[in-house]
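User: I'm putting together notes for a lab meeting next week and I want to include a structural view of one of the chains we've been expressing. I don't have a solved structure, so I'd like a prediction I can at least talk through. The sequence is below, exactly as it appears in our construct file.
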Amino acid sequence: MQEKNIIYEIKEHLGVICNYDTGWTKELNVVSWNGSASKYDIRDWDPAHERMSRGITLHPTEMRALVDLYISANNRKTFENRAGDQEKEKSKQVNAPEENMVPEEKDSDIPFKNDTSEETEFDASPLVDEFNEDAEGSELPE
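Assistant: Thanks for the context. Below is the predicted structure for the 142-residue chain, given as structure tokens.
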């Protein structure tokens, strides 16, 4: 079987996702493979960026969908965690002696109930803003 040379060019290094003890890193980059259009790329790289593992490439619309899914899931989990914490707190109140009773919460005290001023555990707005700015031209670096 004939060996195929793979030609790649890292157009933009967006960041390191994690570091391994071996010196390799999992990175998010914009990469052109075999001279084709640049795509977002997630994979492990050796320190010299000469060898890489299998990874995943995403078109800009796929990357947007991935970011949207992550933000949506994270917001849902944050809401569910807070709602679960409130249920635990109410359970404690029911079983507490009267002198330790906490007044019942009003609807206005419940986080995320149409209140966008409440801080969340993960604020994705800088990521979204940066991504939207980058995606406005919707063109990746050549």
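A couple of points you could mention at the meeting. Residues 60-95 form the longest helix (36 residues). Confidence is low (pLDDT under 50) at residues 107-120.

User: Perfect, that's what I needed.
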